[in-house]
Amino acid sequence: MGNREQTFQKILEVAYVMFAEKGFEKTSLAMIAAEVGISKPAIYYYFQSKDQLISFLFEELYKEIQYDIVVDYKELSPSNFIEKLLKIGYKSIDEQDKDPYFNKIFSQYLLLAARDDHYMQQLLELQSDYLARFYDIFQYAVQLEVLDENANIEAKAHMLAMLYDNIGNFMLTGSQLNYKAIWREAVHSVIQGGKDE
């Protein structure tokens, strides 16, 4: 990796942490440049404005979040369906546990979305995508006969999607809950309660 690429990555890493800890309003490009070890004019080579940097980071986070719920349907079977569903939640919990900045910076984007329709639209699309992905997984569960075809799979899928999303919010507050146990209970409840209803 060349010096320009290294500097670019360093800017992103520093901005990610500073935006999470101080917020968008209280973080300037000059502060980011100083932390990276470059001059303020030099940062403009990479980003023309703080808004452009904020937007770029959001796009990166957006892609990362979308990738979180990727299921290889060829790997799913009646015998491992619950295990695979559990892993989706466990992976998210582990990643958020390792990255104390993710929920903080995402909260900044939620605040930004309250006054910027562009971000609001993207967050709504992300939310719709979450719901659709869980619904697709549950439709496949019916094909595998893990769930009965008369089960209310839309409500079940949306319930898990909402829990998946909200676990992160609780983690942000520092609530010391057994998130994996909660996820496990929810998965078993919607699957085992969804047979022959």
Please describe the topology of this protein.
Elements: H1 3-22, H2 29-36, H3 40-43, H4 50-68, H5 81-98, H6 102-113, H7 117-143, H8 153-173, H9 179-192
Helix pairs in contact: 1-2, 1-6, 5-8, 5-9, 6-7, 7-8, 8-9
By helix and strand content, what is the structural category? mainly alpha
Largest pleated sheet: none
Overall number of structural domains: 2
Number of helices: 9
User: Quick one: CATH class of the largest domain?
Assistant: Mainly Alpha
What general form does the structure show?
Answer: elongated
Span between termini: 57 Å
Order of helices and strands: HHHHHHHHH
Kindly report the CATH topology of the largest domain: Tetracycline Repressor, domain 2
Give your account of this protein's structure.
With 197 residues, the chain is an all-alpha fold. It folds into 2 domains: 1-60, Orthogonal Bundle (Arc Repressor Mutant, subunit A); 69-197, Tetracycline Repressor, domain 2. Helix content is 73%, strand content 0%. The chain has helices at residues 3-22, 29-36, 40-43, 50-68, 81-98, 102-113, 117-143, 153-173, 179-192. Helix 1 packs across helix 6 (102-113) and helix 5 (81-98) packs antiparallel against helix 9. The longest helix is centred in the middle third of the chain and has 27 residues, at 117-143. It is elongated. The protein starts with a helix and ends in a 5-residue tail after the last helix. InterPro entries: DNA-bd_HTH_TetR-type_CS, Homeodomain-like_sf, HTH-type_TetR-like_transc_reg, HTH_TetR, Tet_transcr_reg_TetR-rel_C_sf. Keywords: DNA-binding, Transcription, Transcription regulation. Residues 5-65 form the HTH tetR-type domain. This is TetR/AcrR family transcriptional regulator. Residues 28-47 bind DNA.
